[in-house]
Write a structure and sequence with these properties.
single chain, alpha/beta, UDP-N-acetylmuramoyl-L-alanine:D-glutamate ligase, 9-stranded mixed β-sheet, about 25% strand, globular, metal-binding, ATP-binding
Length: about 270
């Protein structure tokens, strides 16, 4: 039976992240991808502009995908307002299955302007409905209201535990290379509070646009196929790294480029 997976996310016309990266990643895993668009991300040379979908259209999309008999997993990406969060919370309340929340609070090209009430809604309303949340360093610091980067393994684990307790869900903390010198590190606190530190070598690449979305989408697809969270996290991290290594430029005018989730299907000729 075909597994069905839903992403609720922004649309990125340059395909670096958002639902384009999600659907591409889902396809590599042989699952059927469905989508609800929360916003249009307009990527410009000097930043990002976000145009939210109007609330009635957003709600109509959620009602439309209600025709699907069951989703084997759901990924929640960029949400732009309290109203969108409240709609997603209502949508998820009766859902039984894995939920991955990737809290898009910052863009590499610049900060999203989010009110503290939105951060609070993530913590108090959305995360408790999730199986796992996947914040990066700046997002995790914003969610906890912290200003100081954890600079040791112990501090990073404690930081992740605090966030898991606050969010009431498992946390895959994409800490990156600012926590432990000369290494990328991800930290997992699973559903039962068990910690894991996943270290990997630095990748020197300018092709990173969409890495976070790709990782979270892969995690969603693996959980849809009943993989245990720890194993799914490791698989997803490895997949995202390969997507970076096989990344590509979109223009000779841009130094930075996109990750390539379809690397395993590509013809190398």
């Amino acid at each position: 039976m075909v597994k069905k997976v839903l992403t609720i996310a922004g649309s990125d016309s340059l395909s670096g992240g958002g639902l384009q990266a999600d659907l591409a990643t889902f396809a590599t895993q042989g699952v059927a991808g469905f989508s609800v668009i929360s916003s249009l991300a307009i990527i410009e040379k000097d930043g990002v502009r976000i145009k939210p979908v109007d609330q009635s259209t957003f709600d109509a999309q959620l009602a439309s995908v209600g025709q699907v008999d069951h989703f084997d997993a759901i990924k929640v990406g960029l949400l732009c307002s309290l109203e969108q969060i409240h709609s997603v919370v209502r949508f998820l309340k009766d859902y039984i299955g894995p939920v991955v929340v990737d809290p898009v609070l910052f863009f590499k090209e610049g900060n999203l302007t989010l009110e503290r009430s939105i951060i609070k809604a993530y913590i108090e309303q959305l995360f408790p409905l999730a199986t796992v949340a996947t914040p990066n360093l700046r997002e995790a610091m914003s969610l906890l209201g912290e200003d100081e980067i954890p600079k040791s393994k112990g501090a990073a684990l404690n930081f992740t535990k605090q966030l898991s307790l606050s969010a009431r869900c498992a946390i895959l903390f994409k800490a990156g290379d600012e926590v432990l010198a000369d290494q990328f590190v991800d930290l997992l606190i699973d559903e039962e509070g068990h910690p894991a530190v996943i270290r990997h070598k630095l990748i020197q690449s300018d092709y990173r646009d969409g890495a976070g979305c790709t990782l979270a989408a892969m995690l969603t697809a693996r959980l849809a196929q009943n993989e245990e969270l720890k194993d799914a996290a490791k698989t997803s991290i490895d997949f995202a790294r390969q997507s970076i290594l096989h990344g590509y430029t979109i223009s000779s005018d841009r130094e930075e480029g996109n990750v390539f989730p379809n690397w395993s299907l590509a013809n190398d000729d």
